[in-house]
Structures are given as C-alpha cells and as structure tokens.
Write a structure and sequence with these properties.
The protein is mainly α. It contains eight helices and three strands; from the N terminus they run αααααααββαβ. A three-stranded mixed beta sheet has the order 1-2-3. α8 (259-277) links the parallel β2 (244-253) and β3 (280-288). It is elongated and about 85 Å long.
Length: 304
C-alpha cells in the first residue's frame, strides 16, 4: 500500500479505524449467520482492535498539540499511555482466544457457511497485513508509540485470522472440530508474546528510561569530537517522551572562555545532536572550570 498520501500519523490512524470497522461488521455478521464461534470470536477480537485504533487516533491527535503552560514538555507521554493500554488490550485478546478455544473443545458446536468464513479470513488477513505494514512505516518515520502499538495490534489480527482460516480449512476437509481449538491456542501464545513486547516498550518510556545504548553512544561521540574546547562533561541524562528525546548534561569550560563563545559552542553541540538523532530537545548547563581544556568524557547516568 502506497503511504505517500496517508503518511501523516493522524490519517494513518483514521485508516486503521475505518478498516477495523468494516471487518468487525463482516466478521460478526458471518459468525452469527453461520453459527461459527471461531469467526464470531474473530469479530470480537477485531472489535478490540477497533477500540485500540480509536485510542491511537485520539492519542496521536492529542500528542501533536504544542507545549503549553500546564505541559511545558509537550504531550508526547499520551502516546506512551496509549501504547500501554493497547498492549493490555492485545494480551486481553489473547486470553479471550484461549477462553473460546477451550470452550469449543468441550461444546463442539456445529459450523456452517465454512466457505464464507474461509473467504472472510483471507480478506481480513490481507487487509490487516497491508494496513499494519503502512502503520509500522508511518510509526517509524514519526516515532509514534501509539501507531506502533496499533500496528502490532493489526499484525496480531493477521495471525489470528490465519489461525482461524487454518482451523476452518481443516474442519472443512477432516470434520475434526477440535483442530480449530488447537490452532487457536497456538495463535494465542503468539498474541501474548507480541502483547508483552509492546507493553515493555511503551511502559518503560513512561518511567523515563534512558535512551538505547547506541543512541547514547552517538551523543558521547559528538561531544568527544569537540574535546579540545572543554575541560570535561558530566551528568549526561537522557529520556524519551512520545517521539521526542530529551538530553541534558553539564559541560565544564575554561573560566577564560568568553560567555558568548561558550554559548555559541553549546548551541553547536546541541544542533549536532539534533541532526543526528532527529526529534530531540537538548539542554547544556555550563560550568566554569580551570584555565585550559582537559577534555574527558564521562559515562551517562540513568535518568531520574
């Protein structure tokens, strides 16, 4: 799917809402008419996806709002909260699939309209695969935790649709209803794995976890390149809020350095870091030191 016309996070989230709405209506309709608990479960699972898509749509809209008096650091954390909620919904969807699979093992319901259910699962897997790939692309470009979580949601739906497709196909050709439940449990395990992975990524940013080691290494390399202009640096702290990285450090310069020169030098380092990492807010606190540069980088400390 071409992302050129819909590369903005809000429009991508809107597409996810629209596709999920159509699939929910189709799956629940086919599930009720055909008496297929598997297809009906998929419809309810897609309903959870729809809720997640709505959460992502609202969060990317709110997080894009500029900083204000009550939120001087912006609204980026909204996306992390959204991603955490969506991860919990993914895990809940996995639990629901297990519940339904175990229930089908004991009740062994009759399934009709198998061809309609099989065809719908093919359509569902295809549509969600295309939309999730688009969301992953836009999420990476704009560093959006909410869109990334929504993309994971839809990728999970691809696997569940394929699982139900496999189950319905096996039932159609063998008549063994229990195969449907076995496939569903296997898909649920994958759902749990993806859900906990998304939860870890979104929740840790809420706790102001430091940036990844490779990004911290890039920051240190930039600072160390200018070692002849300062004495040393310390208290390098990093964190992330939504798509924005926050970096601050203390830079010790010679007490003979003119204030304007030192100020311009700090601006230069800050700009280099922003150019390297992208969306970043960099703050350097100047401290006077001795009368000559003796540069030595110091390792970063965890963000408080």
């Amino acid at each position: 799917m071409n992302s050129g016309w819909i590369g903005h996070p809000r429009r991508a989230a809107a597409l996810s809402v629209a596709s999920n709405t159509v699939l929910v209506v189709l799956k629940i309709s086919v599930g009720v008419l055909g008496g297929s608990v598997a297809v009906l479960s998929e419809g309810l699972h897609s309903a959870i996806d729809l809720v997640a898509s709505l959460i992502a749509f609202v969060s990317v809209s709110l997080s894009a709002r500029p900083a204000d008096k009550n939120h001087p650091y912006g609204h980026g954390k909204i996306e992390n909260v959204s991603g955490t909620v969506e991860a919990l919904l993914i895990i809940a969807a996995g639990a629901f699939v297990v519940h339904e699979a175990v229930g089908r093992l004991s009740s062994r319901p009759e399934i009709t309209h198998l061809d309609a259910g099989i065809g719908l699962m093919v359509v569902s897997a295809t549509v969600n695969a295309a939309v999730s790939r688009l969301l992953f692309r836009v999420a990476r470009r704009h560093e959006s935790p909410a869109l990334e979580a929504d993309a994971h949601h839809l990728s999970v739906d691809v696997y569940t649709s394929l699982g139900v497709l496999a189950g319905l196909t096996l039932v159609r050709f063998t008549g063994f209803l229990w195969l449907d439940s076995v496939v569903a449990v296997g898909v649920a395990l994958l759902i749990f794995y993806i859900g906990f992975r998304v939860l870890k990524s979104s929740f840790l940013d809420l706790l102001d976890q430091s940036l990844p080691e490779e990004e911290q290494a890039k920051i240190q390399q930039i600072i160390d390149r200018h070692g002849g202009r300062f004495i040393e640096y310390h208290k390098l702290r990093t964190r992330k809020s939504g798509p924005t990285r926050y970096i601050d450090l203390h830079l010790v310069i010679s007490e003979d350095e003119a204030i304007k020169d030192a100020h311009d030098f700090c601006h230069h380092i800050e700009q280099e870091i922003r150019d390297e990492l992208g969306n970043a807010s960099v703050t350097i606190h100047l401290e006077p030191g001795g009368s000559g540069p003796k540069s030595q980088g110091s390792p970063p400390v965890p963000a408080p």
